[in-house]
Write a structure and sequence with these properties.
Chains A, B: InterPro entries: dsRBD_dom (IPR014720), RNase_III (IPR011907), RNase_III_dom (IPR000999), RNase_III_sf (IPR036389). The structure is a homodimer. Chain A contains 12 helices and 3 strands. By secondary structure, the first copy, chain A, is mainly alpha-helical. Chain A folds into 2 domains: 2-164, Ribonuclease III domain (Ribonuclease iii, N-terminal Endonuclease Domain, Chain A); 175-247, 2-Layer Sandwich (Double Stranded RNA Binding Domain), CATH 3.30.160.
Chain lengths: 248, 248
């Protein structure tokens, strides 16, 4: 019976085993409890949905909630991470992390737009849809699982992959240039190769690998070649950090 | 042994049973775990304290953290409380609640300044010290007990006594005028009496009682007579709400 049930609901949006549920599960890294919050987070106002009381169902209110939770989690992280930073420093760093451009990048890299329920073609959305949906998703997590899961998600999807204090402070402009500088000093050959390009104009992805001394040191995937090269360089940088710290 | 220990530490700042600990306990409504966070929240920069790493010990960083937690808790409250409010409405209501004036009022009403450790006389502080210390206190609660206790504290000290959506929306300008209007319609005698005035100019408190038909209906204490009258009127209004709803 359960097997039949699973087959029948496989393509439906809400239920466990359904495409939407599994996509959300994968993005979150943990199982949602109430999928309805997430459905709302991915519903664009053009869908014109209303609840039983006549209130519109779309992501806009969740965006407000998610923005507040994101700011709180990032504040907590910076507070602990930079004990020497004063109030002005912490405020400045946070606004860099939660800038519109940065949130759009996060949403784009997670390809959240593919899950949006809308009556408007995706091409008509502005750039901000990526960041807005990302914030709404954080809001949905708060309602569904509470603050600790917001923290968990933001650590996994924002802080670990993107928040680099040295870079935000402007001390490191580009990891790619650090790596190149080091290779040139050490007289080691290096090259970046694109190993994957899905060629899809709407949501193009690039895979880049960085080789030094003809050994593959790091790989990364991102929405532009430049970004993938930077992420691969950052990975290589941290892998080699001890070595570089001594020699740079 | 424990009895002796308690006596010996009774007047010291940090320990359970000490004046500072018990004052914090009373303000919070729950027991602090690590009193050091709260000591920091009440330390003014003029005290020039440094930690072992040379970082200044004062409330300013905690203020940043508390501000973020306060915004998040109020966002969660408004989201649930006003399901028909759109993003713009929620943003506007939140900024009314966490306005500088409102936070100063909260801090002043809790008389937080009496606990501040400073080398500058209190008279030299600006008005904002009240709100700043209030925010720092929220930050300390977050570090000490986590997000759910921030919620608990903010419900008890901000939302329940101060957050009145109808009034914030401008639908009710003054509860005092509502009460007066009702008494006049009903031809009921009413009067406000000051029953307490501590007469201390630095931190003056007024107690006001509202009598209708020669019965005491509500009492309130606040830092001005006008404010105490308004709070007493609000209490009377909600006590009589059913009655008034029918007759107004």
């Amino acid at each position: 019976m359960n097997v039949f049930k699973k087959i029948f609901t496989k393509n439906s949006r809400p239920l466990e085993g359904g495409i939407f549920f599994e996509a959300i599960h994968k993005i979150l890294g943990f199982k949602p409890n109430n999928i309805e919050f997430y459905q709302k987070a991915f519903t664009h106002r053009s869908s014109n949905k209303l609840d039983l009381k006549g209130n519109p169902i779309n992501y806009e209110r969740l965006e407000f909630l998610g923005d507040a939770m994101l700011s709180a989690v990032i504040a907590g992280h910076l507070f602990n991470e930079v004990p020497s930073g004063d109030e002005g420093y912490l405020t400045k760093m946070r606004s860099k992390i939660v800038s519109r451009e940065h949130l759009n990048e996060l949403g784009r890299d997670l390809n959240l737009i593919q899950l949006v329920d809308s009556k408007v073609p995706f091409q008509h959305f502005g750039e901000n849809i990526h960041g807005n949906i990302f914030e709404a998703l954080v809001g949905a997590i708060f309602l569904d699982k509470g603050y600790p899961y917001c923290e968990k998600f933001i650590y996994k999807r924002v802080i670990v992959p993107y928040v680099d204090i040295a870079k935000l402070e402007g001390k490191v402009i580009s990891y790619k240039s650090l790596v190149i500088e080091w290779c040139q000093k050490e007289k080691k050959p290096f090259h970046f190769d694109v190993f994957d390009d899905n060629g899809n104009d709407g949501q193009r992805y690039f895979g880049v690998k960085l080789s030094i001394d003809n050994k593959i040191i790091a790989k990364a995937r991102a929405t532009s070649k430049k970004k993938a090269e930077e992420i691969a360089s950052k990975r290589a940088f941290f892998a080699f950090q001890e070595k570089m710290d001594k020699k740079l």
